[in-house]
């Protein structure tokens, strides 16, 4: 029970002291007798809050940056009309800053025995699960002098998925894949490792592709065409250790790595390859295996939604051991990790041969755009020092990348916006060269 602002204003204008008590509060307000009677009647006519029945429906998942609508159905089983203000509470990261109050508060008027729906529109700012908190209802009497207030637990969860902003690159990568696969007029000759078909020789064809037996059976010279092999196994390994928590731009490195992994997974599944996911730091954080081509992308997105960087040093030995167990036969292992000197030289390099002796290894790392901007800075002494520091950092990354290449690893080092297409290009190059 609560005294409203309207009643308090009227009480301040009154002259006859009348005592008003609430559980846990005792006070005396200066009100007149008619006002006290009006307040009592107003409280008696306010619809009870505890008897309300609340249920939810609506979206259960949303991509980061998009909106999700969650509908709250309020049923009024009492014999009094409900005039209420309602607050549908969610975690602060469920809205853009400054928009929570407008989005979470609603006014409802529900006649006796009827129900109404109110919709709360969420626009989350972080990945992961967003769980609804309590619903607070304040029921007013017809005069608006007194109110009843109560809360209801109405569970609901909205999973915020990675935004997959790199999907805009997918059409161009699929066009390149079709070229490799011989399905367009731009036929890639002599590439790939799987025989596709025979066709008539045209000037410029590689003479090594001539099929002499087929030529002997017909009047024209026949050449073999090739296509990249299908049904290859690709294991995406996300490093979720402390280095993935470093921010590049407005997001952690892990988010850029996930975006690149999603584009590669979408491309590889269209190419007929099988894609698995392993997220690891000191233990397995996510594992997706054995999904069909149509189900692999939703499964990866769902698994990545709740991943967060862990502030621990990645166990490189454990990571490689888990990768070998997850990929028992020859595969393409894509490591999305750092190119920082200490984690690579002390952790990854000593155990890398365990992967390279059996698998094709591709390492992708997110470069810091701030360092790239510093490298071009000029104009004053401070800017020159910053440029020198950035050049030293870039040289260190190039040195580490060269060490990995000498071990047989294909290295992709790119800025956040460029990492996804660069990684897909590296995959297509390996496929065209028949290295998968």
Automatic annotation (TrEMBL):
<feature type="domain" description="DUF58">
    <location>
        <begin position="198"/>
        <end position="374"/>
    </location>
</feature>
<feature type="region of interest" description="Disordered">
    <location>
        <begin position="89"/>
        <end position="114"/>
    </location>
</feature>
<protein>
    <submittedName>
        <fullName>Lipoprotein</fullName>
    </submittedName>
</protein>
<feature type="compositionally biased region" description="Polar residues">
    <location>
        <begin position="93"/>
        <end position="102"/>
    </location>
</feature>
<keyword id="KW-0449">Lipoprotein</keyword>
<dbReference type="InterPro" id="IPR002881">
    <property type="entry name" value="DUF58"/>
</dbReference>
<dbReference type="Pfam" id="PF01882">
    <property type="entry name" value="DUF58"/>
</dbReference>
């Amino acid at each position: 029970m609560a005294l409203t602002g309207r009643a308090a204003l009227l009480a301040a204008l009154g002259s006859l002291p009348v005592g008003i008590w609430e559980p846990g509060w005792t006070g005396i307000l200066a009100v007149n007798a008619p006002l006290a009677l009006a307040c009592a009647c107003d409280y008696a006519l306010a619809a009870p809050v505890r008897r309300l029945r609340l249920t939810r429906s609506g979206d259960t998942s949303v991509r980061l940056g998009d909106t999700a609508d969650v509908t709250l159905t309020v049923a009024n089983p009492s014999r009094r009309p409900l005039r209420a203000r309602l607050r549908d509470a969610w975690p602060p990261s469920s809205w853009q800053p400054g928009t929570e109050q407008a989005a979470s508060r609603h006014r409802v008027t529900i006649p006796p025995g009827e129900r109404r729906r109110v919709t709360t529109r969420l626009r989350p700012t972080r990945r992961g699960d967003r769980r609804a908190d309590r619903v607070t209802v304040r029921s007013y009497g017809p005069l608006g002098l007194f109110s009843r207030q109560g809360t209801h637990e109405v569970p609901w969860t909205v999973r915020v998925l990675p935004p997959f902003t790199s999907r805009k690159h997918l059409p161009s990568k699929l066009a390149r894949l079709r070229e490799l696969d011989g399905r367009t007029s731009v036929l890639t000759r002599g590439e790939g490792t799987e025989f596709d078909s025979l066709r008539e020789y045209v000037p410029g064809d590689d003479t090594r592709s001539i099929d002499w037996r087929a030529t002997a059976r017909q009047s024209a010279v026949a050449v073999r065409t090739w296509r990249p092999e299908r049904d290859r196994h690709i294991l995406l390994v996300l490093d979720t250790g402390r280095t993935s928590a470093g921010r590049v731009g407005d997001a952690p490195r892990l988010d850029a790595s996930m975006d690149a992994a999603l584009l590669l997974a979408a491309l590889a599944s269209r190419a007929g390859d099988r894609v698995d996911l392993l997220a690891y730091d000191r233990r397995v954080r996510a594992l997706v295996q054995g999904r069909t081509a149509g189900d692999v992308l939703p499964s990866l997105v769902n698994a990545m939604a709740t991943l967060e960087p862990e502030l621990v040093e990645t166990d490189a030995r454990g990571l490689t051991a888990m990768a070998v167990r997850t990929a028992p036969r020859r595969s393409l292992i894509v490591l999305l990790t750092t190119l920082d000197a200490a984690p690579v030289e002390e952790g990854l390099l000593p155990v890398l041969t365990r992967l390279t002796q059996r698998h094709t290894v591709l390492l992708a790392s997110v470069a810091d755009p701030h360092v790239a901007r510093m490298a071009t800075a000029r104009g004053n002494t401070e800017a020159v020092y910053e440029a020198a520091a950035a050049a030293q950092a870039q040289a260190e990354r190039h040195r580490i990348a060269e060490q990995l290449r000498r071990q047989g690893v294909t290295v992709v080092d790119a800025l956040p916006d460029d990492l996804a297409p660069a990684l897909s290009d590296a995959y297509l190059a390996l496929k065209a060269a028949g290295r998968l």
